[in-house]
Specification:
Number of helices: 8
Low-confidence stretches: 1-9, 28-51
Helix content: 25-40%
Largest sheet: 6 strands, mixed
Order of helices and strands: HEEEEEHEHHEEHEEEHHHEEE
Mean pLDDT: 85
Structural class: alpha+beta
Strand order of the largest sheet: 1-5-4-3-2-6
Distance between the termini: 92 Å
Radius of gyration: 32 Å
């Protein structure tokens, strides 16, 4: 009986061990299948004419292309997903060309934004829904504001910094006073916080603050020398930064100097930046001549030119072309390209307060 009992116990142990092994194998296999399925949902290759990623219970489905065919879905519980449809090409045999295979990659992405940013995006969705009258519509076929373009593009690129830039910007005013027995010189500078939650904005702040700080340091030296000898009142220079444009592809700041020390000072500079935080140099050589001709035609009808044209240098047109595209002398606005050129470059007194401002319509967005 003991031998028989031991056999039964041994058999039961083997059955339990076999069951555990099978369970482990099934668990590993299930994990592998689920993992591969999860991957395939993010990048699915399929025949576009027969199948595509879609969601049945969407609130909005918005066509918005960025480099390829793209869609934005607003699902329940404010979940936002994007789908990019990219054609698949294969290299030609014995040549450098590529042939379209007839298939597409469907790249799905879940957008991860803060509630603040999601609310702003959904507000744009609602605006466009009211305009289209449908919950499924093509935003590319609609006339969009720059703000609407910016927020849709932010969704497609999953970049929250584009959405919250106007809220994240944080100005700080720094004051510096110089006094003698009877007089005071007060200079102020406006700088940007470099420690916001917006990484792109922090990078821009470092660039602009370096320019402002350098000018403020020179102002301090001039003020220290002047305060001992001046009888003037209300002296001081104000350095001011201002966000003037946040478009779909770039944003612009102006930097203004206003006030009086020995002389009245008024100067304006403009800076445009990409949403990477990098300065936007004017690298559109193919458009320079076109923009120059438009700026020239506009300016020669301007009151300042008509009133003072006899005072301009003979080669002022060449000087305009050489300076208008330099960083600091131009910036982007809503549908406009603005040039700010000091009048002294054209032969006027260097102490003149005139900044020549020329605004022209953009021929293309950049």
């Amino acid at each position: 009986m003991e031998v028989e009992e031991r056999k039964k116990i041994g058999k039961k142990k083997r059955q339990i061990l076999l069951f555990v092994i099978i369970f482990i194998i099934l668990g590993v296999f299930s994990f592998f299948i689920l993992n591969e399925y999860s991957k395939s949902k993010k990048n699915i290759s399929m025949d576009k004419s027969k199948n595509e990623i879609s969601y049945k219970d969407f609130i909005y489905k918005i066509r918005y292309d960025f480099g390829c065919e793209g869609y934005i879905y607003l699902l329940e519980n404010q979940v936002i997903k994007t789908v990019e449809i990219q054609p698949i090409y294969e290299p030609c045999e014995y040549t450098d060309c590529y042939n379209f295979t007839g298939k597409y990659d469907y790249i799905e992405n879940t957008v991860h934004f803060s509630k603040e940013a999601v609310d702003k995006v959904i507000q744009v969705f609602d605006e466009l829904y009211k305009k289209s009258g449908k919950k499924e519509f093509n935003a590319d076929a609609m006339e969009l504001t720059k703000r609407q373009q910016r927020l849709l593009l932010a969704v497609m690129t999953n970049d929250e910094d584009k959405i919250t830039v106007e809220d994240d910007i944080d100005y700080e005013i720094v004051r510096e006073k110089f006094t003698n027995k009877t007089k005071t010189i007060e200079n102020t500078k406006m700088v940007l916080n470099t420690s916001t939650k917006n990484a792109m904005l922090n990078k821009i702040a470092e660039y602009l603050n370096a320019i402002v700080d350098k000018d403020f340091e020179q102002l301090s030296k001039n003020s220290k020398n002047l305060i001992e000898s001046t009888d003037e009142e209300n002296l001081g220079i104000h350095l001011i930064l201002d966000l003037v444009y946040a478009g779909p592809y770039s944003l612009s700041f102006t930097y203004t100097k206003d006030g009086k020390l020995e002389n009245i000072i008024h100067d304006v500079k403009g800076y445009s930046f990409y949403y990477t935080g990098d300065i936007h140099e004017f690298d559109m050589n193919g458009w320079k001549d076109s923009y120059y001709k438009k700026a020239l035609a506009y300016f020669m009808k301007d009151d300042f030119y008509l009133k003072h044209k006899d005072q301009f240098n003979k080669d002022w047109q060449t000087i305009l072309y050489d300076h208008m595209f330099l960083t600091g002398n131009w910036y982007l606005e809503d549908g406009k390209l603005t040039f700010v050129i000091p009048a002294y470059l054209f032969g006027f007194d260097k102490d003149a307060t005139n900044i020549i401002t020329i605004r022209i319509d953009l021929e293309e967005e950049f």
